């Protein structure tokens, strides 16, 4: 097993391989956040992009995850692609993306998704499904025939990685594991016991 010196390049290669073979969306990953007091929570999200800066995802800025990231910017992602036998763990610190980046992504979303972003009070109590459907209908009427701009309470985050670990399934549980640690502008790679 060759350990590529750049973990972002390696992630991109593994991700592209999973996209062609994974039964579910390969961008699906678990995002772990924690409150100011260190109480953890985790949920599945969709990764929207990755580049040399890090990993990008979007959410309602009033959601539990956004509130926790406001209190404690440290977060972790976990990917598991059964079809390729690869798991990737990413740990780092998040930064809120600027309005231009959030606007650009929001405009690529399907109309129903943009309307849903306006209608949802994510993570807040909801009286009934009918109440949600009514809110979506009200938002659709409000924007009828108009461009649906990004809500001011919706945006993106960049997770800047400080550590990325790759785990490759091995025979007899003798897995291949490589941990990449950021040291300034370079990465140090270490092979780990399984």
Notes on the structure:
Helix 4 (111-119) crosses helix 5. It is elongated and about 55 Å long. It folds into two domains: 7-107 and 152-192, Roll (Pnp Oxidase, Chain A), CATH 2.30.110.10; 111-149, no CATH class. Strands 1, 2, 3, 4, 5, 6, 7, 8 and 9 form a nine-stranded antiparallel β-sheet that branches. The protein has 194 residues and is of the alpha+beta class. It contains five helices and nine strands, in the order H-E-E-E-E-H-E-E-H-H-H-E-E-E. The mean pLDDT is 95. A hairpin with a 2-residue loop joins strand 8 and strand 9. The chain has helices at residues 7-21, 64-71, 99-106, 111-119, 129-142, and strands spanning 28-34, 40-46, 49-51, 54-60, 74-81, 86-96, 154-168, 176-183, 186-192.
Named CATH architecture of the largest domain: Roll
Residues in β-strands, percent: 35-45%
User: How many structural domains can be distinguished in the coordinates?
Assistant: 2
Amount of helix:
25-40%
Shape: elongated
Question: Which regions are unreliable across 5 or more consecutive residues at pLDDT < 50?
Answer: none
Task: Enumerate how many helices there are, as a single number.
Answer: 5
Mean pLDDT: 95
The CATH topology of the largest domain comes to: Pnp Oxidase, Chain A
Order of helical and strand elements: HEEEEHEEHHHEEE
Radius of gyration, rounded? 19 Å
Structural class: alpha+beta
The end-to-end span amounts to 13 Å
Largest sheet: 9 strands, antiparallel
**Assembly state of the chains shown:** single chain
The CATH homologous superfamily name of the largest domain equals: Electron Transport, Fmn-binding Protein, Chain A
CATH domain class name of the largest domain = Mainly Beta
Total number of β-strand segments? 9
């Amino acid at each position: 097993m060759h350990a590529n010196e750049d973990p972002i390049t390696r992630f991109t290669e593994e991700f592209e391989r999973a996209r062609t073979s994974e039964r579910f969306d390969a961008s699906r990953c678990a995002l772990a956040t924690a409150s100011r007091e260190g109480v953890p929570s985790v949920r599945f999200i969709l990764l929207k992009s990755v580049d040399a800066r890090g990993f990008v995802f979007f959410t309602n800025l009033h959601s539990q995850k956004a509130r926790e990231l406001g209190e404690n910017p440290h977060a972790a992602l976990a990917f598991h692609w059964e079809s390729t036998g690869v798991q990737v763990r990413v740990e780092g610190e998040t930064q809120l993306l600027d309005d231009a980046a959030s606007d650009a992504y929001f405009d690529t979303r399907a109309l129903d998704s943009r309307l849903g972003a306006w209608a949802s009070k994510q993570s807040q109590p909801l009286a009934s499904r009918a109440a949600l459907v009514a809110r979506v209908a009200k938002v659709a009427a409000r924007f009828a025939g108009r461009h649906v701009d990004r809500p001011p309470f919706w945006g993106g985050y960049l997770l800047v990685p400080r550590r990325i670990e790759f785990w490759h399934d091995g025979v007899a549980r003798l897995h291949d594991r490589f941990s990449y640690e950021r040291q300034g502008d370079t990465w140090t790679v270490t092979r780990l016991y399984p």
